[in-house]
Amino acid sequence: ELNRIVMSAAERRMPVSMLMIDIDRFKQVNDTLGHQAGDDVLAKLCERIKGRLRQSDLFSRFGGEEFVVVLPDTEPRDARRVAESVREVVSSQPMRVAGQDMTVTISIGVRTIRPVTADAGAAEQLILDSDAAMYRAKRAGRNRVEVFRMKQPSPA
Length: 156
Description:
Mean pLDDT: 93
Shape: elongated
Radius of gyration: 16 Å
Order of helices and strands: HEHHEEHEEEHE
Oligomer: single chain
């Protein structure tokens, strides 16, 4: 599906954005409250995120506690706005899990590309770059959005 979206963006000369989302400190939920509680967190998180997306957006679990959102025809500024909205809806209200209220936060990496050719390399780069930005959000303190930036060449 991602390749199809990137191919379509290349053909129409439109941007495509990706959000890489990771639940902060999710292992602690599983370790302290059990895997059923972890599953409940995942379900409630998905419900909150889906409420902030368009019908045309692709939302998928990427791994354990990672998710991706693909935003067709979305400029960088708008992708960041969606990411902040998603982050806010997740962290703004506690989730009732295993009989207790818990605040869940997420870290999000954002990347927008304007593919010029319809090849699998563009989709793969989108994943790698949004993942790198997400890890930067984790290192910067979690519960935040980071936008991928190309490394600047060092002055000679």
